[in-house]
Amino acid sequence: MTSTSTQPTRPPRDGTTSGRELAAIALEAALDKRARDVTVMDLRGISGEVDYFVIATGESDLQIRAIVEGVVMAIREQAGERPVARDGQPGSSRWIVLDYFDLAVHVFDPELRAHYDLERLWGDAPTETVTDESPVAALLAPDAPLPTVPEDDSAADAEDAS
Fold first, then answer.
1. Is the pTM here over 0.90, yes or no?
2. How much of the chain is in helix, strand and coil states, percent to nearest 5?
3. Which residues pair with 127 in a beta bridge?
4. What are the DSSP calls for 126-156, one per residue?
5. pLDDT tens-digit profile of 115-158?
6. Per-residue pLDDT tens for 29-56?
7. Strand 127-130, strand 103-108: pairing
8. What values do phi and psi take at 132, rounded to 5?
């Protein structure tokens, strides 16, 4: 019998800035580059790999490049960290992922964002979309509660059937 665990499967990063703080920096940087539909997802307790997603949409290759470069530069300048991995390249990819261990930043073009729909895929995670008019995400507040993982009803249904 195998057991599943929500414990991280990779070593923690060396940086001292929390995933929450990195997400706030990424969020602000994406908004500064006029990203659309900037969304924060709190995956603490849901994913064993990452605590937060910041998801943004760029309208063109040029804007996607600007968003990605803006996020990388802001996190480097404010937290002294660089992504440990980067998937995709601006200009040739329509989906770029920046991996900061506790944070994954996804920058999409509109078509791929709609196709992959990470908000639906990770539907159990608390999600908040921010705008220039309301640039603060309550999910990133220092006192934001840890999300709760919904219980699996299939075990209860099997017990009721016996």
1. no
2. 35, 20, 45
3. 41
4. -EEEE-SSS---GGGSTTPPPPPPPP-HHHH
5. 999 999 998 898 999 987 777 788 888 877 777 665 655 444 44
6. 999 999 999 999 999 888 778 999 999 9
7. unpaired
8. -60, -35
